[in-house]
Specification:
With about 70 residues, the chain is mainly α. Helix content is about 60%, strand content about 0%.
Length: about 70
Amino acid sequence: MSEQLNYYAKAIIAFIAPAAVVIGASVTEVSAGGELITMGEWVTAMVAAIVTAAGVASKTNGPKPGDGEHRAID
């Protein structure tokens, strides 16, 4: 079970993070609903979460670099 969770952990985090950001921004006083979340904001949060998680889940991890193969990205 733990191996399966580790396999999907990247997609799970990618689902939670954008939704949390959108929902956090939605409860500010300057949002359309004030301190309440509107239906549009809920839909935006769910779409952001699903699209981001799907994109992350569809991209496989590359091979693990061996010792000495680490380099900075230019």
